[in-house]
Amino acid sequence: MPRLVIWADPSAHTGSEYRRECSNGVVEDVAQIVGLNECFQVPAGTYTGSLKPCDRNALESGAVEFKY
Questions:
Q1: Sequential DSSP letters for 33-59
Q2: Is residue 4 in a domain?
Q3: pTM for this one?
Q4: Residue 5 burial (CB < 10 Å; 0-12/13-18/19+)?
Q5: Structural domain contains residue 34
């Protein structure tokens, strides 16, 4: 069953990989915390103090996505 998982204290695991979603052969997303106090801007406003994970899909070679 697919699921979303993250540590309660991401700062203690910066740089460590964890499974974001897992359904073997369907979706196998892995994430890594690369930023803890990020700032980003979207049409709805500017946000600070955000977590920045780097996501990749083990089923798609080279597919990388940053989320905030």
A1: EEEEEEEEEETTEEEEEEEEEEEEETT
A2: no
A3: 0.70
A4: exposed
A5: yes
